[in-house]
Design goal:
Elements (H helix, E strand, L loop, with lengths): L8 E9 L15 E8 L7 E8 L4 E2 L3 E10 L10 E6 L8 E3 L3 E5 L4 E6 L8 E2 L4 E5 L4 E11 L12 E9 L19
Parallel strand pairs: 4-13
Antiparallel strand pairs: 1-2, 3-5, 5-10, 5-11, 6-9, 6-12, 7-11, 8-9, 12-13
Length: about 190
């Protein structure tokens, strides 16, 4: 017999009884029942979050280095081990994948600009960062950029909150000013004709 506990608490006298109805009858009824007692604790709540930040936080020009820091964090009460979370996102067009620093993450390019990274590092206890996830690149063209990422808990129980599983950072990249050549008034040198 298999039971599934849906409410926490302490349970006694969970019993199963067997009865033999054949001939001859059961001569020893003292062993026809077995009972157990058990305690059911609440499952540890899981909650992961991701926060996007861009460094430096100044005006960005074409050719400037940009560092996107996606900070994954274990906000839940339970621990998270290897394979416990996945970060997905889409790199903005115009940002080459020059270098990525995803310590403790196993990453693959899904298609085009899409990426997916699964945590493969050591177990992270409650209220601690989950590895480091940095994307470094160079701004190649002027315009607005928005870089977003999502984090997903891969465990057997649902998260307590999904509202902190998506984060974006936006910036504008401006072209370097073009300096026009300037000429002064034409002056004739007295020794030249």
């Amino acid at each position: 017999m298999r039971l599934t506990a849906v409410t926490m608490g302490h349970y006694q006298n969970i019993c199963a009884t067997i009865a033999y109805t054949g001939t001859p009858g059961d001569v020893n009824h003292s062993n026809d029942q077995a009972c157990v007692a058990l305690s059911v604790a609440a499952a540890l709540a899981h909650d992961v979050q991701i926060t996007a930040t861009l460094f430096p936080a100044t005006v960005h020009h074409v050719g400037n280095a940009l560092t996107f820091d996606f900070a994954p964090f274990n906000r839940g009460a339970g621990s998270i081990g290897a394979g416990g979370v996945t970060i997905t996102g889409s790199r903005p067009a115009g940002l080459p994948a020059n270098s990525a620093l995803q310590l403790d993450w196993d990453c693959s390019a899904s298609s085009g600009l899409m990426f997916s990274c699964t945590y493969r590092g050591p177990t992270v206890v409650a209220m601690q960062p989950i590895g480091q996830f940095i994307f470094a690149t160079v701004a190649q063209s002027a315009g607005s950029l928005t870089f977003c990422a999502d984090i997903r808990y891969n465990g057997p129980t649902p998260e307590t909150s999904l509202s902190n599983n998506h984060s974006c950072v936006s910036t504008s990249v401006v072209a370097l000013p073009q300096h026009a050549a300037r000429f002064g008034p034409s002056v004739r040198h007295p020794d030249r004709r």
